[in-house]
Target: Chromosome partitioning protein
Amino acid sequence: MSNASATDAAGITPPSQRNPSNRETRRAADRLARKLVRAVVIAVANQKGGSGKTTTILALAGELARRGFRVLVIDCDEQGNATTGLGVPVAKLDNEGTYYLLMDDEAKPADVITPTPHDNISVIAGGEKLSEVTAALASEMGNHTFLSAHVETLRDEFDVILLDTPPALSLLTLNALYAADEIATPINPGVFDLAGIAKLTKTVKRLNTRLNKNIAIAHTFLINFNPRRRNDQDAYGFVKGAFPDALIDTADPQPDREWHGSGVPQSASVNSSQSAGVPLTLYDPRTAVSRAYCRVADVIEQRSLRG
Ligand SMILES: Nc1ncnc2c1ncn2[C@@H]1O[C@H](COP(=O)(O)OP(=O)(O)OP(=O)(O)O)[C@@H](O)[C@H]1O
Ligand SMILES: [Mg+2]
Model:
């Protein structure tokens, strides 16, 4: 995605001619340029349950919001973990936002966008009622496009829209993938998790061919990763072979290090931040796990959010 023409048209100095005095100035200029283009929509997906999808949504939402991007999280999961993880209690909402958007022909996203306690982060809540959607919409024409239609109306209000998906290939997952521009996939280094990747790849292929939806796994990275474990290094090699351009090495570049790949480490602060309803990267930005997620955010910002 290029910002150049929109930037030029608005009379903003193109990036190549800017001489930013510091990082913040550069970011402010990037943000200004981004406001002239439409939000990037990223679905975090992996059909394997418990693979760090929601943790990734929360960590990325926190870090991208801290950098000044306007972030909307759409929780497409009946577990509602992305909603509560942002400090928004599902039970206190009058309606469950994503359910309402999918089920009510008159629904308007503005009615269900909920502010969170965190600057620059809003959420459309998930929750239990989403379990009714797949059966209720089974015979509706174009039922995979319902979320996409709403997301399109929100692209001018946000810089990045993150879609949290459930663990199976339900109609909810399909709606999220169809609404997205790209997919981010966290992967555990276990053998079953690696096998699950084939399933997601097949789903993506089907979206490409059967629904004519041009989408790919654009970003992937290992989680619960220990670089000194042989199995984890093997897993890194496997994922590198499958997604050579998408795999993110979460360590800062260190040419002399003895191992050749890195991922997000395991940490008790993941669970503590989720209990506190605060995105991991805001809860404790100094931990190794937060720094790894910041590196993921760096790469996503570079690849997808800047021109
Ligand atoms: N890096 C990590 N360190 C420690 N615990 C983690 C880490 N990443 C995820 N977890 C924990 O693993 C569990 C599963 O993570 P998460 O809920 O993010 O997965 P998910 O893919 O969203 O699951 P589901 O498929 O059920 O939606 C959670 O209890 C979470 O706190
Ligand atoms: Mg989840």
Summary: The pocket of adenosine-5'-triphosphate (ligand 1) is lined by residues 49-55, 77, 79, 81, 167, 223-224, 264, 266-267, 270-271, 274, 289 (CB under 6 Å). DSSP finds 13 helices and seven strands in the chain. Confidence is low (pLDDT under 50) at residues 1-20.
